Automatic annotation (TrEMBL):
Keywords of this entry: Lyase, Metal-binding, Tetrahydrobiopterin biosynthesis, Zinc
GO cellular component: mitochondrion
Cofactor: Zn(2+)
Family per record: Belongs to the PTPS family.
Gene Ontology molecular function: any one: 6-pyruvoyltetrahydropterin synthase activity
Enzyme Commission code: 4.2.3.12
Lineage: Eukaryota, Fungi, Fungi incertae sedis, Chytridiomycota, Chytridiomycota incertae sedis
Name this protein carries in UniProt: 6-pyruvoyl tetrahydrobiopterin synthase
InterPro entries, per database record: 6-PTP_synth/QueD, 6-PTP_synth/QueD_sf, PTPS_His_AS
Pathway: Cofactor biosynthesis; tetrahydrobiopterin biosynthesis; tetrahydrobiopterin from 7,8-dihydroneopterin triphosphate: step 1/3
Biological process according to GO: tetrahydrobiopterin biosynthetic process
């Protein structure tokens, strides 16, 4: 049976502040610079989710794209869109909301609810120039 990769992209907006509770205020400022501003800042994120799996010989699909869209809505969009990631998502209460940590959070959230197929990759565009790829490793 052929193995196929299926991808869907969504956009969302969210605010955050790069700040680690494990560091002093001076260390946070030195590491994160203007992204450590006490009132935070925002991004228009783009996220691409890639699943892989055997091509179903009857449906011709790895996973119905409608199901992937709904999983992304539940695990990502409803949770993160127009939110302050640090304040509104418990996962970020004790860790910095870097793009890397956001991608890991998305992976953990999606992995719990995908009906079939294997989560292969999260590609998170924080900006046009800053991109994180996470494969669950």
């Amino acid at each position: 049976m052929p193995i196929v990769y299926l991808s869907r992209r969504e956009h969302f907006s969210a605010a955050h502040r790069l700040h680690s509770p494990k560091l002093s205020d001076a260390e946070n400022l030195a590491i994160y610079g203007k992204c450590n501003h006490k009132h935070g800042h925002g991004h228009n994120y783009k996220v691409e989710v890639v699943v892989k799996g055997e091509l179903d010989p009857t449906t011709g699909m790895v996973l119905n794209i409608t199901e992937l869209k709904e999983c992304m809505k539940v695990a990502i969009m409803d949770v993160m869109d127009h939110k302050n990631l640090d304040m509104d998502i418990e996962y970020f209460h004790d860790k910095p909301s870097t793009a890397e940590n956001i991608a890991v959070f998305m992976w953990m959230s999606l992995a719990k609810i995908l009906p079939k197929g294997e989560l292969h990759e999260i590609v998170l565009h924080e900006t046009d120039n800053n991109v994180v790829i996470y494969r669950g490793e």
